[in-house]
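Subject: sequence -> structure tokens, single chain

Hey, anyone have a minute? Need the predicted structure for the following. Not urgent.
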Amino acid sequence: AFSLVLELVPAAVSKAVTAAVAIPTIGIGAGADCDGQVLVLHDLLGLNDNFRPKFLRRYAELAGEVRSAVGRFAEDVRAGRYPGTEHSF
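Reply:
Had a minute. Here:
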């Protein structure tokens, strides 16, 4: 193994594991003592506004923006406004 992912592990356990192994540990909901941290991009960007685990810090709230953009796209397609000649080859 070249690394170890510790997900939803108590911080004290992650600290002990990180101290005990010679390879890097990467934490997701496992405390600050891992060698690195990871968050799922969709969670970090707030694309699923119903998912709120304790370990997650949102850096944006984009779910509403995405729903709005998809809705506008669908409206334009249904109305024949997209794609236009400028979007075609």
